[in-house]
Amino acid sequence: MKFRPLHDRVVIKRIECDEKTAGGIIIPDTAKEKPQEGEVVAVGSGIRDEAGKVTALDVKVGDKVLFGKWSGTEVKLDGTDYIIMKESDIMGVIEGTSCCKKGSCKSKK
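The structure corresponding to this sequence follows.
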């Protein structure tokens, strides 16, 4: 991907989990809610304060993050779905294991 977000914007690729019920029934994609977890794939240079100084963002490429259900704008770049949002729409960075159950996460293609 050759895309660089501006200022305090972040490009995120959703992470999906393989969802099964306790009885082993696989939930189809049409019945699932979109995941609110993703991986940061690009970040802007930062936001300028009133004095003109650029303040770097807290997230970096490769971070796993949680974001709001209706956050950002969905775009398709090079055939892959991404979300572009402001850093302030990100709720937090996931450290350690993912929020997905049983570690069955995969990047959405």
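The radius of gyration is 15 Å.
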